[in-house]
Each structure stands twice: as structure tokens, then as C-alpha cells.
Amino acid sequence: MTPLLSKSTFIRSLQCQKSLYLYKNFYHLRDEISQERQYVFERGHDVGRLAQQLFPGGVDVGWQSPKEYEQSVSRTNQCISEGINVIYEASFVWNNVLVAADILVKEGSGWHIYEVKSSLGISETYLRDAALQLYIATKSGLEINGISIIHLNKSYIRKEELELDQLFQIEDVTNRVEARMNEIVFGLIDARTTLSQKFIPDIKIGPHCESPYTCDFKGYCGWNRMPVNSIFQLDDLEEEQKWDLFQNNVLDFRDIPEEYQLNPLQKIALKSRISGEVFIEVEAIKSHLAKIVAPAAFLDIQVFRPAVPLTSGAHPYAQIPFGYCIKNMDDQESRIYIAEAGFDFEEKLLEQFISDSNDYQTLICFDKQRQSNALKRITERFPQYKDETEKRFESIIDLSEIFKNRHFYHPKMKENLRVLPAVFGLETELNKDDKIKSDSLAGTAFEYLYKDGDLMHAIEIKEMLKSYMKGNIEAISLIYKGLLMINDQ
User: pTM of the full predicted structure?
Assistant: First the structure.
């Protein structure tokens, strides 16, 4: 029997036929899904459910498990025959290809398909996705008048209540989708041909492994078996450079030709990685640290970026600061502030931040741009705090600039806040068992406070956030300590 194809497996086939074959025949070989990627999936579902309110009163025929798709197809046909005008997750199968329209709306004698995306615009992948929807729904016998993509409106600014007609932007893509029908037909033929084979397609790794999505069979294809000296381990190289070298049979960065075009910073990194020597510009480091004026404190600000604005004055995916940690460089104790998740907490956060940072001439951080951007939008809403906030911006000294400008480079270095202390021989056991291990997951955790009404769970999340933020401050202080050791040489 010919394996069932869905929208996701079809898009997978356009990216890589080998990935399709592995997914259908060796599913157990998939890489583990990261927490960040799982959150992207959940965010898409949340946005999709919210968009259904643009067309209220519909019947949801979606399935919880892929095994239930036949029931969903049957319920879709039943709704159509009963005269239901709005159907959510309407499913159609033709020639063993399954699609599910996010929203199906009756228009005159025909129907209009609405696909919902949690993005700020329309990509080529989305158009191919929509083209498959239109093709299969039409082949299954449904009269389709048109198809549109609903996505988030980047210009929308939330006020009191969510205005769904402003939050979402609907674009009719019927003409653009119809122009891609030949691509869909030939794509389905290619996918069927691949799945009829008795062997795994021999497709080498390439840029397609990351575009349009990160493939979940990279481990199988050997990405995790790359040599230590692989060009893909040299973070300073641009992606285009890596693939250019790869296509020219240069896999080990020690084999990069001397005449190969590299910028000065890339040359420093390559030389250090090959020789194993640490590159240090002592005077540049001293000059940077000399900008620090006491009293000083270490600073870390955390943000979240909800797709759907949850606070007043925010737009989709706006960076919204929800907490910070300040530690006097001469003390052990940290001051941690986490906002109460709600509609309008930013003014209180800004007031508290100004108060807690008032006694310091210098704030020492890692990645000034992120720290500053986190607060700039708030000052636009509350201009009465602008002068005081700008004073804080001017007082920030960014330790990451030392590493970005290659004033210090260690051959085993990764420009990661939690990893960098180790290159100075300074390690800490603090927070190694934290469930939150990145800024993006910290933001996700805070966003969950809006969804989960369980008080005990909220307390647990806040404790995890405090532990993570305390760990960040500890890492910044250790990096500073390591740089001071160089400064004293």
C-alpha cells in the first residue's frame, strides 16, 4: 500500500527526499525534539485556535492522533452535507494524500480555505503548503472559490482587549497558489517515487538540512559524527563559506587554504584553533575594563516574545522585559525582580529597575543591545522615565564586546554566557540542574504564567526563573573575574 502523505511530509519531501524516506520508514531514528522547537509547535496551535474566532460558530472536526484522520475526513463530509458553513480542521484525502484546512468557510456555492500561520508574513513554504491544500481539496470533489493565509499583523499594537480583526492580517493567495500547481503535481510524483524505493536515497548533507526547517534526521546523516576540527565547528565562518569549503572537499578547518578569503576576526579564530594558543590583546581588555566606574553592579534582563501580545502597547513578537537581576560586584547577594504576569506590569517594572540601579555608576552586562532593547519600548510608552532610563543605558559596559572583537579568543571558546567562565579555568556548580537552560526557555516559562492558573505551578515557575537569572549573574561575574586576571598580568 502506498504510504499516506500529509502536508508536513510533503513539505519535508520538497526539502529533502531522504528525510521523507527516513520519516516514513525509520521514524525512530529522528533526533530528539528540543524544548524550543516544541514550543514553536504549541505556539502555532494557540494562534490557530485564536484565529478561529474570526469565523465563529464553526464545528471542529480535527483529530488528536494521526490514526483518527479517517474519522476527521468522515466528519468533514458530514458537516458539508448538513449545511455547516464554518468547519475547523476540515480534512480531505485524495490519492492517499491528506490535508487539513485550518478554517473552511462556505461562500456562495463554493468554499474558501483559510490557512493560519503564527508568522508576520508569507513565505514560499507557506504558499506551497496552501497550494497542496487547494489541489487535494479540489481533487476530492469540493468546489473551492479561493484560499487565503491568515498571519499576524506586525503593525498591530494592543490596547485594552485584543482586536482580532486588527491582530490578524488576511491575504488572498489564490492566484499565487494556482501558479504553483505544476510544482505540486511533480512534487507528489517525486515523493511517491521516493517512497516506492527499497533503499534510502543517497543525498549528501547541504544547506537544505536547515532550510526551510532544521531537519530532524541530522544525527542520522552524520552531523553528530563530524570530526572535532570540522569547518562546521568553526563558528566564525559564515554559512556560505562553510558550504563553499565543503563543496571544494575541505572538511577540516586545518586544511583551509592560506589564500582563502577571511576577515581579520576569522583569521584570529582560525589561527587560535589550529595552534591551540589563546589570543589576547591585553591593552584592549584593559581599556575596556577601565570604563567601569565604581560603584558598579552586574546586570541581566530577561524578556519574553509572545506571538500574540499579552501586555498593553505591545505588538506581535515584541521583546517585553519581565524581570532582571542586579548584583553589586562587591556583594554575594543578588536582587532579583520578576513581574506579576498581567496586562500592564511594565511601568512598575521600570520604576523598580530605576530604583534598584540608582546607586551604581556602571552596570556590567553581557550583550548590551539585548539589555537596552528590552527597556526602550517601555520608555516610549512612559516617556516620564526616559531620562533616567537613558542614564542606565549610557552606564552599561558590555563584556561581550571583548569576545566579539576578538580581544580575547580561546581555541575552545564558545561565545555563550554559561560556557565562557570555563575558558578562564573558572567553573561553578551553581544551577547545573536547572530545568531552564536558555533565555528563550526563560521567556517561554514566564509566558506560561498567563496560561496556567495553578498557583503552586506558578510559584514553581518563578523559582526556576530566579535560579536561572541568578546563574546568569554568577556567569557574568566569573567572566569579569577572568578578565581581571588578564588585566592584572
Answer: 0.91
